[in-house]
Design goal:
This protein is an alpha+beta fold. The protein has one domain. Helix content is 29%, strand content 22%. Strand 1 and strand 2 form a beta hairpin. Helix 1 crosses helix 2. The longest helix is centred in the first third of the chain and has 17 residues.
Length: 194
Amino acid sequence: MRGLAIVLFALGFGMTSDVVPAVAQHHVAKEKAQKSKTDAELITSATSAAPLAVSKDATIVAVGSDGKLRTLRQGQGAFTCVPDDPNTPGNDPMCLDRNAFEWFKALLAHEKPPEGKVWLAYMLKGGSDASNDDPFASEPPTGKKWVQTGPHVMIGGPGVTKMLYSYPTSADDTRKPYIMFGGTPYEHVMFPVQ
């Protein structure tokens, strides 16, 4: 399945079949590198997602291949940071406030996020998502590319996207604010910062 995702990813970017093995090797190499990283390296990755004032006191957790969370560093701050996801083509660590972390855990578990909580998350290294519409997609739909967004912050929760209804619900131009996962319990607004 992962090999198919790599091939589809490569072909989605218009790469010819002779380039696909190179893309596959890069993806596999990234995943192996992530798995072989020390906890200190994972912490460095995670803390790079937010301003130092936010990440220096954050709790750091890594997501295992089974979706379970492992605490790498217990923090005293209001944020939890997660290192780069080796299953995506980009470098995408993130730091989430308490409500956003509850949202993230619900997303990992395919459960409904807690209601009535507005949340904020930083992704100052950018991010890669398989779909702007399907929160559980592990590869882009046929004929689509990975959604690549540069450095950004995300805001979600009750009424946030309704207040900001003027933003597009497509990721046609990720340099401008847009709504991700619109119409799902996981919807949020992406605010690029560069």
